[in-house]
């Protein structure tokens, strides 16, 4: 008597169904792995397509000759479509970079046809893989009834899974995802990619969002000159947490652009940290502007000021400071937990929970709002370290129907984030300290580059940049505010990480 015959019928049936359902996804993965590479000739070169399992439903492209690529969350389905450029047609690239609509439209059609054919063929291989595994399992099972049940359930599940995934991809496809792709590359190559992506011709004069992406790719590969509209650009960072190891790579990235640092330079902010960090932070560039965080002290901020870092806000008196940067009126608010005691503060409060929690947080929010209202000049940009306090100001102003452009620069959580409240934008660049010296191998450096209109104090776009400090792996997500939050809507955006496991938890 076989194993299946010795079991109670209900148990055997349940086990058979579970086995069939487990073999189906395994068969699809195996089928995709053994599927032959699918290539398509396009106007700008030969590309290959591949399908792999993924919970993200992404479309990604990689250009080996340039060692960079981009990805977009274009659909909701359990697979990723990967495109790789294998050969280049130089003449066509130059035409596309110059805005030849014929080349762009032809390439777009060829890529759409190739992607559709590749997905269908890979799913056919996946279905075949599932049926092969079910057939092998059926041969092992001797009981005829169980064998028929296995094939029936498995066959139906294979068709259902494959069909559902294809329908989900079709009906959730979002072409607008290509307006906010995530670029990944190594080192300085990111800057060139993002410069081209900002080209107003790329964004506004061509027939579709995807054609805009094609043209930006063509422009980069053809190395054609661009005429990107001028903008006022500055970098945002926070949460160094005494990690002096990242100073040099940051300095190389930022060069001489203004760098706004929204607090948490140290861990405890004692004298030793002040001596270590102050000259190194000053070396980040010629235009470093800082305000304090909950881990900082008056002594540390004074050391920064003595090393020619422009410190906004008097922590001892809780008074904001102001500056004029790139023609923008900037106000910086010291953190309410900035320590004003003497010596090395070992037992100082670091969070509001170290005091009395919600009551203190609410009181400090009210104090911040009153300080903002008391500013003599209306700011274009404010710096507030703790994201919770920054959000309370944004929400209060939004409730008042505040009608001026305002950008709030913040940090504290170590997570990159954009929130838009009509004309108010709250930007968190992440942690430039990669989570501190002890987390430098587990968390990436995170910062943001903000692009303002050349005339008006209006934030046009934000580049969220992540760099793994030891390997040099990097990615950047450009977020165009008008595309992500049209018509002054309230919305929020969080860019994907180099790996989600590299960024975890809330900071204190």
Describe the structure.
- This protein has 508 residues and is of the alpha/beta class.
- The chain has 14 helices and 20 strands.
- It has a 13-stranded mixed sheet with strand order 1-2-5-3-4-6-19-18-17-7-8-9-10. It has a 7-stranded mixed sheet with strand order 11-12-13-14-16-15-20, covered by helices on one side.
- The C terminus is likely disordered.
Shape: globular
CATH superfamily of the largest domain: Metallo-dependent phosphatases
Helix content: 25-40%
- CATH top-level class of the largest domain: Alpha Beta
Q: Average pLDDT value?
A: 79
CATH architectural label of the largest domain: 4-Layer Sandwich
Q: Could you tell me the strand content as a percent range?
A: 15-25%
Structural class: alpha/beta
- State the distance separating the first and last CA atoms: 64 Å
Strands across the major sheet, in which order? 1-2-5-3-4-6-19-18-17-7-8-9-10
Number of discrete helical segments: 14
Task: Please mark out the parts with pLDDT under 50 across 5 or more consecutive residues, or reply none.
Answer: 201-207, 224-229, 499-507
Could you give the count of β-strands? 20
Rg, Å, rounded: 27 Å
């Amino acid at each position: 008597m076989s194993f299946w015959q010795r079991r109670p019928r209900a148990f055997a049936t349940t086990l058979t169904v579970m086995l069939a359902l487990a073999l189906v996804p395994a068969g699809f993965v195996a089928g995709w792995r053994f599927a032959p590479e699918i290539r398509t000739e396009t106007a700008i070169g030969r590309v290959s397509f591949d399908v792999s399992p993924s919970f993200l439903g992404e479309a990604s492209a990689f250009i080996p000759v340039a060692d960079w690529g981009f990805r977009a969350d274009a659909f909701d389905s359990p697979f990723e479509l990967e495109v790789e450029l294998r050969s280049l047609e130089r003449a066509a690239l130059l035409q596309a970079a110059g805005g030849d609509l014929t080349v762009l439209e032809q390439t777009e059609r060829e890529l759409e046809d190739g992607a559709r054919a590749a997905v269908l063929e890979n799913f056919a291989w996946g279905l075949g893989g599932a049926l092969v595994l079910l057939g092998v399992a059926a041969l092992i099972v001797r009981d005829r009834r169980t064998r028929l049940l296995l094939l029936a359930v498995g066959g139906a599940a294979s068709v259902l899974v494959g069909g559902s995934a294809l329908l989900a991809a079709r009906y959730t496809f979002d072409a607008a995802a290509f307006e906010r792709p995530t670029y990944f590359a190594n080192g300085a190559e990111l800057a060139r990619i993002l410069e081209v992506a900002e080209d107003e011709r790329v964004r506004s004069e061509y027939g579709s969002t995807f054609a805009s992406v094609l043209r930006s790719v063509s422009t980069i590969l053809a190395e054609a000159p661009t005429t990107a509209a001028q903008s006022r650009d500055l970098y945002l960072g926070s949460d160094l947490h005494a990690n002096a190891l990242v100073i040099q790579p940051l300095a190389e990235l930022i060069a001489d652009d203004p760098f706004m640092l929204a607090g948490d330079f140290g861990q405890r902010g004692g004298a030793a940290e002040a001596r270590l960090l102050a000259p190194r932070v000053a070396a980040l560039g010629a235009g470093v502007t800082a305000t304090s965080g909950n881990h900082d002290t008056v002594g540390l901020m004074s050391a920064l000021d003595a090393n020619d870092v422009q410190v906004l806000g008097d922590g001892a008196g809780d008074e904001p400071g102001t500056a004029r940067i790139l023609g923008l009126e900037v106000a910086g608010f010291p953190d309410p937990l900035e320590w004003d005691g003497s010596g090395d503060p070992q037992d100082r409060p670091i969070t509001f929970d170290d005091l009395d929690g919600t009551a203190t947080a609410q009181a400090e929010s009210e104090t911040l709002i009153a300080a903002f209202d008391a500013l003599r000049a209306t700011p274009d940009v404010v710096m507030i370290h703790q994201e919770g306090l920054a959000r309370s100001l944004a929400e209060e102003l939004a409730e008042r129907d505040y009608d001026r452009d305002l950008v709030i620069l913040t940090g504290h959580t170590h997570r990159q984030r954009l929130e838009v409240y009509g004309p108010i934008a709250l930007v968190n660049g992440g942690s430039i300290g990669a989570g501190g010296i002890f987390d430098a191998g587990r968390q990436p450096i995170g910062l943001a580059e903000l692009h303002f209109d050349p005339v008006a104090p209006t934030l046009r776009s934000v580049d969220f940049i992540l760099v793994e400090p030891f390997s040099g792996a990097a990615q950047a997500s450009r977020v165009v505010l008008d595309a992500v939050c049209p018509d002054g809507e309230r919305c929020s955006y969080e860019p994907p990480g180099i790996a989600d496991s590299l960024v975890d938890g809330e900071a204190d």
